[in-house]
Write a structure and sequence with these properties.
The chain is an alpha+beta fold. Helix content is 41%, strand content 28%. A seven-stranded mixed sheet has the order 1-2-3-4-5-7-6. A hairpin with a 4-residue loop joins strand 3 and strand 4. It is globular. It starts with 8 loop residues before the first strand and ends with a helix.
């Protein structure tokens, strides 16, 4: 259960200067929070894989409380996959993760993304489930020294077909003007055609 947070959580885009802080928070979160779901070998291999700076093809969002970094999330720039979601162990259950996820979803919807995917750790599965993600399948990630790291592939529908269709209707003054002209021509043309038909009928008789 999430606790009430009396401090405002602010979200911003990551800057190059945040790189070291992001890595340190990531390692601390894994070491502290994932220990209950993975054995020592899996945990060490996962920590090693996350000891380098994040990737260039990610859009990273930072969560701060009182200008202190308390979590971050990452979304691939050219796809619809959440590639990271980590919260400082001292700030779990304070809506930091939920606030980050909501921000990521809003960014994705602005790009007309219909569905988000995430390869969640076993530790994060319940968090994503509480926020509307459904399980697709179990997914094993192969780490260094052939260590198998179990994860869960999950997804969340963001935009339904009905939403996409209705939101695609854009006000177009030109199309409205063309429709009005067509209606005017029809109103003028139908009586004229009727008069011509009457004239020809009289001439034939």
């Amino acid at each position: 259960m999430e606790q009430e947070n009396n401090h405002k959580i602010s979200i911003r885009s990551a800057r190059p200067a945040d790189s070291d802080a992001i890595v340190q928070l990531q390692l601390l979160s894994i070491e502290t929070l994932c220990a209950q779901d993975y054995n020592k070998e899996q945990l060490q291999a996962f920590l090693k894989s996350k000891s380098c700076p994040r990737y260039w093809d990610e859009k990273i969002f930072i969560a701060e409380i009182d200008q202190t970094i308390v979590g971050f999330a990452a979304l691939q720039k050219y796809s619809h996959v959440i590639t990271a979601m980590f919260v400082h162990p001292l700030h779990i259950r304070k809506k930091v993760g939920t606030t980050l996820l909501l921000h990521v979803e809003q960014v994705a919807m602005k790009k007309r993304t219909k569905k988000l995917l995430v390869y969640s750790s076993l530790t994060g599965k319940n968090f994503y489930a509480r926020n509307g993600f459904t399980t697709i399948c179990e997914y094993n990630i192969l780490l260094e020294n052939m260590v198998v790291f179990p994860s869960i592939k999950m997804s969340k529908q963001l935009l339904t077909k009905k939403t996409t269709k209705s939101s695609s209707k854009v006000f177009d003054p030109q199309s409205i003007q063309q429709k009005s002209i067509l209606q005017l021509l029809l109103r003028v043309s139908i009586p004229s055609i009727t008069m011509l038909l009457v004239y020809f009928f009289i001439k034939i008789r």
